Amino acid sequence: MSSYIRPQPPAFERVEDERLHRKQRLAAAFRLFGKFGFSEGIAGHITARDPEFTDHFWVNPFGAYFGHIRVSDLILVNKEGEVVKGGDAEVNQAAFAIHSQIHEARPDVIAAAHAHSLYGKAWSSLGRFLDPLTQDSCAFYEDHGLFDDYTGVVLDTSEGERLAQALSGNKAIILRNHGILTVGHTVDEAAFWYISLERSCQAQLLAEAAGRPTTIKHETARLTQTQVGSHVSGWFSFQPLYDRIVREEPDLLN
Question: For the segment 125-155, what is each residue's pLDDT rounded down to a tens digit?
Fold first, then answer.
């Protein structure tokens, strides 16, 4: 019997191909966030580090609806917060204040995702870590931080630096009274972890509203985290979602 080899993230010989790949994944992630109802007016942003200019990142233009974003709409922002590609579009200052500091503090992070989705912001108001209640939530067991201080809209990079410190080496963070944020070694991974974390917040809110949920034992939760919470697992789990959204909304690739 031949052993199954799980697919791996692609490798690229040309930086132009890698840049296009990241931008396509980024546009797809925005479309999925829109389809899943994660948009809240002008709030929310997903960034992808440029593979050539590694202190620059691609992001959604300020004020654009998640569900309409195409590859050609994405803007490139430098480390000073200036839009260097994207015409007259502006960058959300909160996006720059937060994401610039995360990308600087975590060279391993290719992408970061943050939105004001319903269950993430509801859970964040409790100022608590998630418990290991389900197999899926174990992906975040001992692998998410808590920023236990809300001081208003994040518009200063010093606040973004504090947030990055609270994230530390984790894949996700709960921002008290604000919402949730995830990171990944690929755009695919960061986007999937966001979707999964939002649903894990929903699951725990529902479980606690219904009764007293049973938590998974520490040793089992740790084991499960290694089984479902790896970088490759996050990337792989995004692939069917990417295939779905590209088939349903192929104009995102324009």
Answer: 999 999 999 999 999 999 999 999 998 888 8
Stretches in the chain below the pLDDT threshold 70:
1-3
Adjacency order of strands within the sheet including 75-77: 83-85, 75-77, 57-59, 45-49, 111-115, 179-184, 172-175, 144-147
Kindly tell me the burial class for residue 50, based on how many C-beta atoms sit within 10 Å of its own C-beta (0-12, 13-18, 19 or more).
buried
User: What CA–CA distances, in Å, run from 30 to 48, 59, 156?
Assistant: 12, 10, 25
Residue 94 φ then ψ, to 5°: -65, -35
Residue-wise pLDDT tens digits, 163-201: 999 999 999 999 999 999 999 999 999 999 999 999 999
Rounded Cα gap, residues 119 and 38, in angstroms: 10
**CA pair distance 30, 123, nearest whole angstrom:** 22
